[in-house]
Protein 1
Amino acid sequence: MPAQCSSCTDKRAVLKRPKTGHSLCKECFFWAFEEEVHQTIVAAELFKSGESVGIAASGGKDSTVLAHVMKLLNERYNYGLELMLISVDEGITGYRDDSLETVKRNQQQYELPLKIVSYEELYGWTMDAIVKQVGLKNNCTFCGVFRRQALDRGAVMLKVDKICTGHNADDVAETVLMNVLRGDIARLRRCTAISTSSEGEGVVPRCKPLKYAYEKEIVLYAYFKKLDYFSTECIYSPNAYRGYARTFLKDLESIRPSTIIDIIHSGENLSVREGVKMPVQGTCSRCGYISSQALCKSCVLLEGLNRGLPKLGIGKHHRLHDKILSQQPLTEKEERKLKSVDF
Amino acid sequence: MCQVDEEYHDQLERTDVLSASQKCVRCKEASAAVVIRAGDAYCRGCFKEYFIHKFRAMLGKNRIIFPGEKVLLAVSGGPSSCSMLSQVQEGLSQKAHKKLRFFPGIVYIDEGGAIGQSTEERQRTVSELEVVFKATGFPFHILPLEQVLDLPSSVVVMALPPLEQPPSAYKAAVDRFNQTCGSDCLTPPEKQKKSLPDVHESHTQLLQQLIGSAKTLTAREDLLNTLRQHLLVYTARTEGYSKLMLGDNCTRLAIKLLTSISLGRGAQLAQDTGFSDSRYGDIIAVRPMRDYSAKEIAHYNHMFDVPSVLIPSLETKTSEKASIRGLTESFVTKLQTDFPSTVSTIYRTSEKLQTVCRSSSTDDHSDRCLLCLCVLDTAVEKASAFQATLISEQVSQTLSLGPGIPRQNSGPERPASAASAGQCRSLSGGEDCGRATSGGSCCSSAKETINLKSLLCYSCRLTIRDMSSVDHLPLYIMSEAQRRQRRSQMRDEISEFLLNDEV
């Protein structure tokens, strides 16, 4: 039985919104989706007129839709922003080189300047080389930490005021679940914030305009708008711990679709007891990037890679930071601990 | 493995194969009987000591139960609560070292009516439990859940909490108790309650209608939990108990934490899973079993013959994806096999949380949820998930959004009531019906229009949303809802004259 669009009640509905269950026609869905992102941007005061904003583009669905919607809303509502694309090349053959083609196509379609930064030029290591050393577990840690810094470096090169990433509601909900499972109370408190703080040398504040958009709706939007994107899973991701949280979330969504937003609501409203130890923000003594320890995670990981000690940085090694800084050699026992890798 | 701040030990150790002839790691004399955690093998005697000590330490550390207090033990018949019962017995026995000093009572709520058990089955379960309860010598109360339909509305109102005691008061109270009574004082009063009173068939039907009006198993469980809690608090109040002991163990609390997060109860996590829960004001609920894993309890019960009764619940024989709680349980259990520290990590996370203490205007109870009695978390803050849900509802339906918002195609502007046709029941309708307070043009009910949702916290709203009709809710809930609504309307009328900067 053909249903009428519940918004304009005029046209026939062609889709059912995963978020609310309403049946909508194509145009009303576009409008609803874009309007929600616009309301998010306005309510959270993410941007100021005249700023230059770097859109973190990976060629995947989230960043493609983000680029499209940002450009659209910038024109429709006169945000007055100057938009640019920043892309990171991690050096994963068969995955990243294909998605970068998508980003280059996006650049042409949307007529936005593009900057690509690569791990190779920033750190001297590609992800393929890292995985050969580290193995198939824990490599997502390397990729994530390096990418964060890479984005910041790219942003500084382009001289943008803010970065926006395509994290969607499913990502934020997964992160909340993951932080509970891992007992990371500090991250649990911060992870639902829509934008990061802006203090620190060489740090560009970043925000998530798509924070309340469901992943399924992003795909629906891209499908109906005929946006082109690259849709393969990273070849190294099946073994990530996040996969457990993701499966759990997908199952939750099938029981009750509003769970995704409910988890975000929980994350926003929980509060941590006083007296719980929290990390303090400082700077890395080696590279000057923000860090809560003496050495930032990037430096620690790089040190481990360069010295053939891949486990340095995975796990707790605060006592070794001083040793690394002062360039003392590590004892043999310590080296043995850090070297072994399980595949 | 993937825990933050985890220490990495030396790799490639030879794992010691646990053999039957291994010695207990504690006393190193007797042979080991049970392995708790990874690699800790205990003998019978040491295990019993360890188990008992944990219970005592949990109560002693928190110093919430004062000597001479009456404490109500909520026993469901399951292994955890029966273990708790046996620990209390153990702690009160004459020969105990540093005896417990409170007066316990037992309450069992028979939920057979809600899950569709026959009267014979219910009677059988009750008889089994009666045997267990009588053997303890404590006063016990067996109540059918149907009694919840007759509760007064004071149940959902937070009572005044007892006066704040300084920390030294506990020690002083203990000394005083020891001086006046000593150990002879603790003979329990002989008043034994009658067993399961006769339940009217009509009441059972009403209860089943109520539970059945919730369309999803998740909502049904939530509703059942709420009703059970209300009945427990009511019993504690009327029988003069000041504390309520619940038998949630570590595993169950870890699952409860994840479930609560998935249900949107982030603001209430500390009360849902913490040691003490003071949301009712005068009755404080405590969870002394929260340090025990389900495995430890099972071992203890088996080794020391603690009786327990298997009672089916709403979830029995359903698939694992039927409800959020069931899914979370299977998820945590499976994850625990690959990552043995999962449950303890989640449990430790729960210890670091707290409840936000809003302004202490507890006089006006309209800042508490009607059903779960926790502080409301539905203040529409800018850029919050809650606001996002409201916006989503707005943009997906025909509602007047005001001028200035361009739309690609302007359909005919229909009035709000027609758009939600079929959903016109004021009680379960969306925001639009709530705004039509006067006139009630879209509501055909004779009684007062109640916007139930505005009185509920985020997750209780989700439960109500899953209900096909709220007409079956017990009278005490509805009358309290009406009272609060009237009061809030009163306040709106005089708001400009009130000096206090109220919510």
Protein 2
Amino acid sequence: MADLTSTFVGIKSPNPFWLASAPPTDKEYNVRRAYEAGWGGVVWKTLGEEGPPVVNVNGPRYGAIWGADRRLLGLNNIELITDRPLEVNLREIKAVKRDYPDRALVVSLMVPCEEAAWKAILPLVEETGADGVELNFGCPHGMSERGMGSAVGQVPEYIEMVTRWVKQNSRMPCIVKLTPNITDIRKPAEAAKRGGADAVSLINTINSITSVDLDLFAPEPTIDGKGAHGGYCGPAVKPIALNMVAEIARSPETRGMPISGIGGVTTWRDAAEFMALGAGNVQVCTAAMTYGFKVVQEMISGLSQYLDEKGVGLSDLVGRAVPNVSDWQNLNLNAISKAKIDQDLCISCGRCYAACEDTSHQAIAMSPDRVFTVKDDECVACNLCVNVCPVEGCISMERMDIGATDPRTGKVVPAEFGDWTTHPNNPMARAAE
Amino acid sequence: MDARQLAGGIRAGRLEPQALEEGFSDLHPPYDDHEALVAADRCYFCHDAPCATACPTSIDIPLFIRQIATGTPEAAAKTILSQNILGGMCARVCPTETLCEEVCVREVAEGKPVEIGRLQRYATDRIMARNIHPFERAAPTGKRVVVVGAGPAGLSCAHRLAMKGHDVVILDARAKPGGLNEFGIAAYKSTDDFAAREVDWLLGIGGITIETGRMLGRDLTLTELTSDYDAVFLGLGLGGVNTLGIEGDDREGVLNAVEFISELRQAGDLSALPVGRDVVVIGGGMTAVDAAVQAKLLGALNVTIVYRRSQARMAASAFEQELAQAKGVRIICNATPKGVHGNGAVREIEFEFTDDDLTPTGESFRLPADQVFRAIGQSLVTEGLPVLAGRKIAVEGPGRTSLPGVWAGGDCAAGGDDLTVTAVAEGRDAAEDIHATLMR
Ligand SMILES: Cc1cc2nc3c(=O)[nH]c(=O)nc-3n(C[C@H](O)[C@H](O)[C@H](O)COP(=O)(O)OP(=O)(O)OC[C@H]3O[C@@H](n4cnc5c(N)ncnc54)[C@H](O)[C@@H]3O)c2cc1C
Ligand SMILES: Cc1cc2nc3c(=O)[nH]c(=O)nc-3n(C[C@H](O)[C@H](O)[C@H](O)COP(=O)(O)O)c2cc1C
Ligand code: SF4
């Protein structure tokens, strides 16, 4: 059993699986049960300033999309920050932290964009013994209409300013949670760094409408005939989150800045992928909301088995794939592959044929008795057939040997690397040095 | 149909080797990787899952299936084996249709459960194929425990005790360990010498010695064991077989179903194993079905199970009954044996129809038979044992018997179903109690 102990911005936890700030971490009852189930840490549901708490809608606040067999793939919500009084939350945080000193407990905060508001709340949080704060600059609905959440997260200058206030008024580690509702994720990350943030966490939810009621003609979830856009999360957002994490991890401006990876983490493998792309730990919301706190047990056993089999420690995993995240222009155009169909595994459904024939390169042949074969002289190795094949491992990409002739182009596969920067068709091509 | 199948009497070689091989191949063939993923995907990861509650060893089924779904069958196996060290055998022999799969929410909703047994086999096969033993022994305690009986109950108890750091000696009367896993379970449920391979794998924990050919009551007494060891666990199973108690019960050709099965399980070459042309099996449980089906698979022409009550009351599950019928076994119900007729060897067996309360109807019939199997239950050989409850050893809580320092579990202990998985659960729980007692 690999050692999963994790240290993130100085905060120790028995494993790198934290619950993200959201309903699973909204109260003492949940958080105690989450720790008992094995979660390494939690980011408490976002607290607002003192005074009457926000109110939530009293109708449906979630919408969803499903895959086959009604597997939940994407969740959308219009929930606000905590709707429980500040002092109740603070009292509970203190009690939980006292009883679980070995688990991480970070408190998420969102107060108005005024230094006084931050100055007021930080000492109260510090007093609970919590391990750190996370600044919620991500919530894309409701709170953003009031100038908070993603309204701050979309303006790098505000991020920098608020982060600086927090660092000046508190000794706690400060994680800045970013919104994905922005064109270039590096900018807010750089702003957080300039403001003195210890880390960034991402992603928060993505602006979304999951579906439209075609009788009421209203977006879902619908409240009294109307709907508002919500925030999208769950397995469907993982690819978007992975890219954003990688962008920050490989950018010269932010390289080395600790990242807490969030967005669709559902299994150990998702977590390992985030970590390989530079996340020091991961946070989970939708998977816990779909399957309950117990899902963490699979994440723990799976990550541990993976590390054991690879013979690496948890910290060796972090960032291991970052050097291989490249720009398109640096991909090797001389690495030539062809699709290959394993006839023993093929079940003759013909999906690869339809896909390639109708929408790709007409590179799959179909015989009258439904044998499907790749035409090497047409195949551009796009991978579409692999992706649509229902049988895992049935179609694979085989790299051509150096010196062989590509029947599609009639050219010999060169031994040397050659990318777009040096390609003759590139008007800006630089001569190879 | 050829002459060899039609020939009367008990004879070998009724079928071609290839037909034998096909018949005795895996009842539920193992999943390949793709099938396992598709099957695992159907699990809903239910909260407080009914399947796990229905499992006598309380395996965390949703968790292990999720571990298969996420590509870590080894972790899945560990989840299984930490509750049930014979999870591999149980995956093959458990009547899942009356246990976990019966209560699967998808069985209830759609009539098609997640195939838990086959998924369990997929995971446990994987870890055994990789020769991983995922448990380690605790520091030695210096305590010595003797386990009598190397069946599922004894093996499970011994493994848990060894894991806790105790030294364990298992004594078994037979020449091979495994109990009914080795000698009783139908051949098509435990192919490729699985029972023996599983025992070898289980012993990988260390700290367990098995002494075969050592019989309690013949070679040693319970008093000797209690004075020589810190604790004793009895996992004796049921060695005796109930007799029909009718005239002709001792005729040539009338034998115990369990002996027929055990001979079959140990036979190197099934084409050398003799079987009758007209076989009659008396009983209504798993043993009756197993004997009948295997007789049929050996090439018996007519195989009939005769049970004294209605089919609904047969102890064999609906699945087992259907299996027998699919293999061509005829099931006659509400008939009680009255006499075994023949001139030396059995030639016919006579029955009288009864109602469900076994009241005779006066209507009788005869079936031709050159081989008759008794499958009307096994019994405990009881000399020199702790106090009994009925015909089994009385136990309290986790297997405590009337004698201090002596625990019992599995088929020989009162309470619980006579199933492999129940024996495993009882052996494990007794081990936990023995450990707690010894370390007090
Ligand atoms: C034909 C048949 C088919 C079955 N099929 C299934 C099935 O498909 N699924 C299922 O779940 N269950 C099945 N069962 C039931 C299952 O096999 C038993 O419930 C299980 O084996 C009980 O385990 P045990 O350890 O208590 O006893 P056993 O498996 O009977 O083991 C007892 C061991 O103790 C040894 N022993 C006995 N007396 C002494 C002594 N005096 N000294 C030393 N050693 C001794 C024996 O040699 C034996 O090895 C079947 C049973 C039979 C008979
Ligand atoms: C119902 C709901 C409420 C949420 N509330 C908050 C919040 O109060 N503060 C916050 O920082 N993020 C909030 N989030 C966003 C999550 O913390 C997380 O960033 C997002 O759901 C992506 O992770 P996931 O794909 O694992 O769900 C909320 C998400 C959901 C579904
Ligand atoms: S999950 Fe269902 S029952 Fe629970 S609060 Fe929401 S709507 Fe109500």
Protein 3
Amino acid sequence: MRALNEIAVVTTICIKSIPQRFWTSLSTVVAVSLVVTVLLAFLAMAAGFQQTLRGTGAKDMAIMLRAGAQAELNSGIVRNQARLIEEAPGVLKGPDGKPLVSPELYVIVDGIKKSTLPADGDLKKAPRANVTLRGLGPAGIAVRPGLKIVEGRQFNPGTNELLVGRALQKDFVGFNLGDTVKLGNSSWVVVGVFELGGSVFESELWADTPVVQDLFHRQNVFQSIRARLTGPDALGALKDYVANDPQLKLDVTTEAEYYAQQASRTSDLIQKLGWPLAIAMAFGALAGALNTMYSSVAARAQEIATLRCIGFSGTSSFLGTLAESLVLSLAGGVVGALFTWVAFDGLTGSTLSGASFSQIVFTFHLTPAVALQGIVLALVVGFIGGVLPAWRAARIPIVEAYGTP
Amino acid sequence: MTGQTLIHLQDVSKRFVKGKDTITIFDHLGLTIPAGDFVAVMGPSGSGKTTLLNLLGGIDQPTEGAITFDGARVDTLTEGQLARWRAHNVGFIFQFYNLMPTLSAARNVELPLLLTAFGRSERKRRVEAALSLVGLAERANHYPREMSGGQQQRVAIARALISDPKLLLCDEPTGDLDRSTADEILAMLQLLNREMGKTIVMVTHDPEAAKYARRTLHLDKGRFTEREMVA
Ligand SMILES: Nc1ncnc2c1ncn2[C@@H]1O[C@H](COP(=O)(O)OP(=O)(O)O)[C@@H](O)[C@H]1O
Ligand SMILES: [Mg+2]
């Protein structure tokens, strides 16, 4: 109790003295908040990206790629393999009795992001970004029950008609209903806009398989097969079936797992960029914190010595000084987190997905867990920046109580 | 009026090592201060007055010799033991008051009590009593910057008294005050000596201030030359 009283009052003295060093204290808070903002922006990006990709995959949807392909882009599947999957066990049948199996084509085309449009609006000068064009048929719609056409209509088979994902339409130039779009050497017309639960598909263009195969010279080739499963246990049966047929050299997994894997690869990459950058900046903030705290200890030397003279312990000076540093860095952490939240949370960004090489539109998401990481980094800076000055505070000679203040 | 020995310095030497040089401040110094004494210490700058107070107050240790307080050795105590010993036995009064600028008068006075077992209400009662003793009961919630030098020094006296120590050590307590305020403070110290029996050792440059003490010790080249004063 006595020790607590002692530490509490020294801590109060230290913290209440912060306004006496307003500018240097403020600079520490600002430096720490910048570090936290940079870190949290990256982590919020990773979290948002992960959330988008996680939301994409269904657990009762199997996705099949050529063995070892890992991503749709690298995969290749022939029509006969798709036909064999239609006869596989564990595959759900639609109301018409047909198996819900969708062979899909995956092509990368060019688009222009609204955010990179030059000031004069000259499209020729704008940088191109990769966009996914997915070729699918009526089965592709049937296997995705969450699909909503929010504007216009579904494309008609055999035509150059495009269905555009909502996120892509918002982020890219020239995908409004009725627009004519040039993809590769061919012209297309936007006839509908779709939403699909905020998933990655909303960053895609969809068109009729045979037309895409024709215009992009991919006759009879697909990149993936999706199959709706009868239940969670059905994946095993499907895997066995594929493994026992030498014509089916395919990797089978659930769509949920497929996108979760893609998500962790890319969000790992984002975090691997964010952390070192934030830590490098943290060293700068640490130098500032040390400077602030050393000047604080120097300014309070006589107060500390007087307390020691009265009988206070060096430990209380140590802890009080450390507390002051932690308060400053915590303030920086909270300001940084709030700033990130106001400036970035809910902000839409798009990035090249590591595996698909096309743009995925996602939303920055500052989760409490992410914010906590920023606060912890701030406290680490405050702790290290406080320990050495606190040590000096504890070692101030008591005779410094004398003399001019 | 003065009683048995409170402080005894026996063959005390104090040397500071500065680089290659050793400065000897005291060489086999002896001093006895009875309980209830009020000693003024005068002497030229650099003669070791503050060093003497540091030794008496357990802030610094002698290089050689023994210091006893109330019959017990203090020169052998560890740093932590000394801190506790100071908290119970010594009140310090400084030239520049040394109040905590961010704490109110009452909170400043309370500081030494935080090292005791007293509860909150007992501490409050004692702080009020100490502040009224120095005539500042109304100023309890004022901050040092809102008070004159004389008032701040009275708060410092209340702080030095609050844990009821036997010994008060004052280093130039009126060095920063005008004549009439200085006289008020000195009269207060004299009252504490006479009415409450506090033993006081006061360093001063001011012969007028020294007149309030029972006796004056002149310190020069590490030696005392004592002259009794009529109090
Ligand atoms: N911690 C120390 N280290 C080295 N020299 C010191 C120290 N403290 C005091 N001195 C020296 O001891 C001498 C006496 O100092 P002090 O006791 O402060 O004198 P006074 O208070 O009488 O002016 C001075 O020469 C001073 O420089
Ligand atoms: Mg001195």
Protein 4
Amino acid sequence: MASSDFQVNVPSGFSNPDSQSLSEVEKSMAGAMDLSEEQFRQCKLDHLLKEERRLERGKDLGEQVKKILGELGAGYRLTSVTWNSNTLSRRLEIETPQGPQNLVLSWELVDDALDSRTRSELQRLRNMVLFGLGRQELIVRH
Amino acid sequence: MGLSGRLVHFWFSPSGREALKEAISGGSDFEALVVEENELGLWIWMPDAEQDSREVTLLKLEYFAAASLEYEPPEAPRERPGVGFQAS
């Protein structure tokens, strides 16, 4: 998903993104799971909607991280936000003056920050980004 | 309440003071950033340490007697995100 200037990636569990039509493979999967095609279609739709929400959340997270990187001056740029469904985490790829770095943030930390948007929760996000980038000298109690 | 990313003020328990007297200098309390929490305890980084260092220390739960931090409760409880594909 192309965002303003960073990529947001949510690897899909479906190679066929059409929620209404089922491929032959999906029809056979429905049978293997003992589901009717209509039940499978509904499950697929639910799953695709979750993926869509994760894309939006990734974009939101990226915008928050861009604000944090803005404090660090030139040379820091967010390039991508990628959801990992195995670890329930987001991987951020960030260009820094020392080269590209990856940061991994848990879903709990991200959801705490984006759901509440309270100062203390956004501060947690900021602290983890700064620590991950080796800029811990900027972590102070405000 | 998640602790990772929070600056927390800790007070040693008696066993913690003894166990960490060489790792953490100073008095009976200290401030640290919780970097990760897992079944072993809290992995902390101390702002007073050398600023360039990203070395973290394991603080077992029995090593502190009290802790304080800034906390604003969320307005509504959250649901854990679902994973995978599940029939209802």
